[in-house]
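Module 6 notes. Inverse folding takes a fixed backbone as the condition and produces residue identities as the prediction. Think of it as a translation problem where the source language is geometry and the target language is the twenty amino acids. Below is one complete input and output pair. Work through it position by position during the lab.
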């Protein structure tokens, strides 16, 4: 699904725990309104994926931007947070 843009993506330590939290914004660039979109976040250390998880954004109307956040409980920020080299974020489905 191509009519989406992700920006202001940050990978940080969750304030409530030692987990990693991914935050950012998604913009619906297409002409269709979505009640729900399901996106995927993949975090990498070098070329090795260390996390692969789904997040959901509800009520994404055409031409609008919404914030998202996903806490990744299985990763300890103190152990891998500084080693994350890049990420991939994309929309898998929407309705």
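Target side of the pair, the amino acids:
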């Amino acid at each position: 699904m191509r009519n989406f843009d992700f920006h202001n993506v940050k990978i940080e330590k969750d304030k409530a725990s030692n987990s990693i939290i991914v935050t950012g914004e998604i913009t619906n660039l297409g002409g269709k309104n979505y009640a729900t979109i399901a996106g995927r976040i993949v975090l990498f250390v070098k070329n090795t994926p260390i996390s692969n998880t789904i997040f959901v954004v509800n009520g994404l109307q055409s031409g609008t931007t919404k914030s998202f956040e996903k806490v990744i409980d299985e990763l300890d920020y103190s152990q891998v947070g500084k080693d994350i080299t890049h990420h991939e974020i994309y929309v898998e489905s929407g309705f």
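Reference fact for the lab report: The chain has a mean pLDDT of 97.
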